[in-house]
């Protein structure tokens, strides 16, 4: 009847995050519990974000989801775990304008339609799953009037994709690995908000929009199974480095921040190389180079590293840090606007874009949410 025609909707927008202390390796694959803490910076939502609309209606027959306009399956454990956890925490919802009243228990039988858009390449190593799952959990929590705080929501988003838990907060965020077997204490906490370090500028060179070859999930499973270096990293290196990074962020100490960020990116890729069979994210020449007029992808990575390392050594104090994830894009942090301008000049000199349109692939943004 008429009363059955309502649709209740919520739209949310969530930026992606870039890890400066990397998450790589799980101790529990189903709950997504990591082998070490990680720290990230949440980007400005303008450039790299997911927009998700969630809708509930008695006229929907099943839960369905569309990603970038294409229907995708929700049957996987990760989506199912997130939906179940959110539904279990749903509250009463009343929309007087629509004459809608939903009781807590009604959410179990109300179906959802979800539409999600990324304004950046999906699965190209720019943490699209991070923004996507964080946004989904956040939007559903709003729709269903879930009262849990962001930290509790982050533990739900974590079950969708590990790095997603860090996108529930802006600014600088730590994913605490936790000790419990049930994962309740494996969640995100905000270290500093988006206004804390205003000088910092993040520059991302989108090298290729093609999808990466080894997924993070598979890659880290193989690393956990085969790499001895990972055991050393998780037990000895990351615990100390996390504390040092927290200090660097607190004090806005760019020299330490840059040293730790570069070192951790390099160790993450060393751990990938220590995996059997080895994983090469930094010189993956299997990707076609669409946006950049480069002979080989590996030249970009090694050249960015050497350009930045050389430049930093020639100055009194580091000007720029680099970090690379499980995909073909370069993320750089400049200590301030002046360093960012100089960095862009250098990038444009060493990697001249082949057309004006390619200039768009340099994204200049603030880290603020
Ligand atoms: C990070 N990455 O800390 C690290 C650095 C990639 C390199 O988190 O299996 O997509 O969904 O938990 O979160 C990528 O891993 O993996 C990632 P799942 P996820 O940002």
UniProtKB/TrEMBL annotation:
<feature type="domain" description="Diphosphomevalonate decarboxylase-like N-terminal">
    <location>
        <begin position="15"/>
        <end position="188"/>
    </location>
</feature>
<dbReference type="GO" id="GO:0019287">
    <property type="term" value="P:isopentenyl diphosphate biosynthetic process, mevalonate pathway"/>
</dbReference>
<keyword id="KW-0443">Lipid metabolism</keyword>
<keyword id="KW-0752">Steroid biosynthesis</keyword>
<keyword id="KW-0444">Lipid biosynthesis</keyword>
<dbReference type="GO" id="GO:0005777">
    <property type="term" value="C:peroxisome"/>
</dbReference>
<keyword id="KW-1207">Sterol metabolism</keyword>
<dbReference type="GO" id="GO:0005524">
    <property type="term" value="F:ATP binding"/>
</dbReference>
<feature type="domain" description="Mvd1 C-terminal">
    <location>
        <begin position="202"/>
        <end position="369"/>
    </location>
</feature>
<dbReference type="GO" id="GO:0004163">
    <property type="term" value="F:diphosphomevalonate decarboxylase activity"/>
</dbReference>
<comment type="function">
    <text>Performs the first committed step in the biosynthesis of isoprene-containing compounds such as sterols and terpenoids.</text>
</comment>
<keyword id="KW-0753">Steroid metabolism</keyword>
<protein>
    <recommendedName>
        <fullName>Diphosphomevalonate decarboxylase</fullName>
        <ecNumber>4.1.1.33</ecNumber>
    </recommendedName>
</protein>
<keyword id="KW-0756">Sterol biosynthesis</keyword>
<keyword id="KW-0547">Nucleotide-binding</keyword>
<dbReference type="GO" id="GO:0016126">
    <property type="term" value="P:sterol biosynthetic process"/>
</dbReference>
<keyword id="KW-0456">Lyase</keyword>
<dbReference type="GO" id="GO:0005829">
    <property type="term" value="C:cytosol"/>
</dbReference>
<keyword id="KW-0576">Peroxisome</keyword>
<comment type="similarity">
    <text>Belongs to the diphosphomevalonate decarboxylase family.</text>
</comment>
<keyword id="KW-0067">ATP-binding</keyword>
